[in-house]
Amino acid sequence: MVLQAPYTPAHLRELRRQHLVEAVKEEFDDSGGTYGSSTIWIRLVGQGWRVSVNAIAEIMSEFGWSRGRYADGGGWPGRGNGRPPRTSCGGTSPVPRR
């Protein structure tokens, strides 16, 4: 008879990810929705987590937790995303100055 451990490596991975998702959500909520993946990564590493900034960015993207001004998915201004480019004169000039 072979006894099986109560926790398999895959199960432990899932538990760790669940705890990481909860930690990311907590930091994001505590910031009022303003922290991005880099800032959340810095704070989690300070708490002792060993995780990459890309893993946090993936989690935030998966759950739709994006920060700040461009959270509507429109991208950055002036990059062909349908928004008018920024100009130095407040948008009144027909030709943007770069």
TrEMBL record:
Pfam families: HTH_21
Domain of life: Bacteria
Domain HTH-like: 17-69
Region (Disordered): 73-98
Keywords: Plasmid
Record protein name field: IS3 family transposase
UniProt organism field: Streptomyces mirabilis
